[in-house]
Amino acid sequence: MTNILWLQGGACSGNTISFLNAEEPTVCDLITDFGMKVLWHPSLGMELGANLQKLLWDCISGKIPLDILVFEGTVINAPNGTGEWNRFADRPMKDWLSDLSKVAQFVVAVGDCATWGGIPAIAPNPSESEGLQFLKRQEGGFLGKDFRAKSGLPVINIPGCPAHPDWITQILVAIATGRISDITLDELHRPQTFFNTFTQTGCTRNVHFTYKATTSEFGQRKGCLFYDLGCRGPMTHSSCNRILWNRVSSKTRAGMPCLGCTEPEFPFFDLKPGTVFKTQTVMGVPKELPPGIKKTDYALLTVVAKNAAPPWAEEDIFTV
To answer: What is the pLDDT of residues 222-255, one digit of tens each?
Structure first.
């Protein structure tokens, strides 16, 4: 039996909703097939008041073994480091988190807010929010750079806004079945099995990307979203086009630009109207290019690609 405790800090519950929609495996599969016990979850837990507090203190004392502590949302430290803006079970949430993380075998941060602060941590950050072990790309966060769970691992980060449901459940399965040692974490503590490739991998618009054939409207099923609509697929580490959402689709497949939500810098740009869904360019060259591509090489490649583009590169390949 693997005991899981899921707590929520400063969050919109988006990752909870995503988790409850997991399909490979489902939440029910975690319980029936993989022997997991959800001690408590904001949307599933039955305990309230004194009963919930007793459960939490029993985990801290070791009376109830805590195998996996899952945290969703930011760690709120306001005002002035007290954490009183986010109270839970008669204490600041950050105090529960501090105590529980010391006894947990594994600590898993789910979603951008828990991994590196997300949207709440954008300056001026009035809630004094931070992630469990990162603040944006800077390692440290609430638990500190040197934190290690009882298993010896740092916080396992599963970013996204929200995180893909199957990323969450598959990592929980890897822990519960003793196979987490097969998973390699990158420098941001993300499982490489999901975050070693770019969102562009598996994108149905790759042929349009190659020939610099662009689209200028949401929902169009032809053209690449990178050149005009600010798609960050070529620069974002995720498996959204390899492991489809609900086995069906992804943002780029539906005609929506990738927003880069698995990277610490999300949300990008200044969020003013006209900046998010518009590719930022200098003399026609995007300010940000896929890793390893020089601006001079890109300019030359663009000319060659456009001249070599076949007529069908501008056609809607999904027309029936």
So the answer is: 889 998 999 999 999 999 999 999 899 999 999 9
Place of tokens 């899981």: 4
Cis peptide before 267 (omega within 30 of 0): yes
Token couple for 267: 């949300």
Two structure tokens written together for 297: 């090489």
pLDDT one-digit tens code per residue, 124-135: 999 999 999 999
87 class by beta-carbon count within 10 Å (0-12 exposed, 13-18 middle, 19+ buried): middle
Q: How far apart are CA 313 and CA 320, in angstroms?
A: 16
CATH superfamily of domain region 2-195:
NADH:ubiquinone oxidoreductase-like, 20kDa subunit (3.40.50.700)
**Model-level pTM greater than 0.90?**
yes
Q: How many CB atoms lie within 10 A of CB 153?
A: 19
Residue 93: exposure state from Cβ atoms within 10 A (0-12, 13-18, ≥19): buried
Closest CA to 7 of 88, 118, 90: 88
Q: Where are the domains of the chain?
A: 2-195, 197-320
Distance (Å, whole) CA 220 – CA 223? 8
- Cα four-point dihedral sign 45, 30, 194, 240: negative
The CATH class that applies to domain 197-320 reads few secondary structures
Q: For the CA atoms of the chain, what is the radius of gyration? A: 21
Which pLDDT band, with edges at 50, 70 and 90, does 314 fall under?
confident
